[in-house]
Automatic annotation (TrEMBL):
Function: Major role in the synthesis of nucleoside triphosphates other than ATP. The ATP gamma phosphate is transferred to the NDP beta phosphate via a ping-pong mechanism, using a phosphorylated active-site intermediate.
Listed name of the protein: Nucleoside diphosphate kinase
Cellular component GO terms, alphabetical: cytoplasm
Main location: cytoplasm
SMART domains reported for this sequence: NDK
UniProt subunit comment: Homotetramer.
PROSITE patterns per record: NDPK, NDPK_LIKE
Source organism (scientific name): Magnetococcus marinus (strain ATCC BAA-1437 / JCM 17883 / MC-1)
GN (gene name): ndk
Reactions accelerated catalytically: a 2'-deoxyribonucleoside 5'-diphosphate + ATP = a 2'-deoxyribonucleoside 5'-triphosphate + ADP; a ribonucleoside 5'-diphosphate + ATP = a ribonucleoside 5'-triphosphate + ADP
GO molecular function, one term: nucleoside diphosphate kinase activity
InterPro entries: NDK-like_dom (IPR034907), NDK-like_dom_sf (IPR036850), Nucleoside_diP_kinase (IPR001564), Nucleoside_diP_kinase_AS (IPR023005)
Length: 151
């Protein structure tokens, strides 16, 4: 038998995702989750919560020096969000691909941001940019017992 899996099997990863207030208000939570599922990502944890500006500020602390930081924190606490953990082959990059570019004007057709985002600030989704940040972001919102082992 010939085994290809050394070259072609990707790593099972976990990534952290937020469906932002604009997408929740548009009532497209299910459509966005469906895109994750169709891409082969499994939702292993999910909850709808309302962030306080303080929690949003902590979560986005890396952007503290950026000019958009205050607006971003008030925006992210302006309405409920869905925080979730996605698992699958190459989940971090796969999720970034499905999301599309930060500015929906630059997002490729068929991506979540191209289809559902309003603007660079109200841009429908957040997704971790690397496995290391994914681990930190998951731990910020979920305890270990909230992450489900699932088929
Ligand atoms: N953002 C903004 N104005 C900007 C750049 C970013 O409001 O000029 C917001 C936007 O909501 C973005 C978030 O800050 O999703 C984090 O920015 P980042 O560059 O990390 O983009 P992302 O990783 O979300 O694509």
């Amino acid at each position: 038998a010939v085994f290809f899996h050394q070259e072609f099997t990707m790593t099972i990863e976990r990534t952290f995702s937020i469906i932002k207030p604009d997408a929740v208000a548009k009532n497209v939570v299910g459509e966005i989750q469906s895109r994750f599922e169709k891409a082969g990502l499994r939702i292993i944890a999910s909850k709808m919560i309302r962030l306080t500006p303080e929690i949003a500020g902590k979560f986005y602390e890396v952007h503290k020096a950026r000019p958009f930081y205050n607006d971003l924190c008030s925006y992210m606490s302006s309405g409920p969000v869905v925080v979730q953990v996605l698992e699958g082959d190459g989940a971090v990059l796969k999720n970034r691909d499905i999301m599309g570019a930060t500015n929906p004007k630059d997002a490729a057709p068929g991506t979540i941001r191209a289809d559902f985002a309003e603007s660079i600030d109200a841009n429908a989704v957040h997704g971790s940019d690397a496995p290391e940040t994914a681990a930190q972001e998951i731990a910020f919102f979920f305890s270990g017992t909230e992450l489900c082992d699932r088929p």
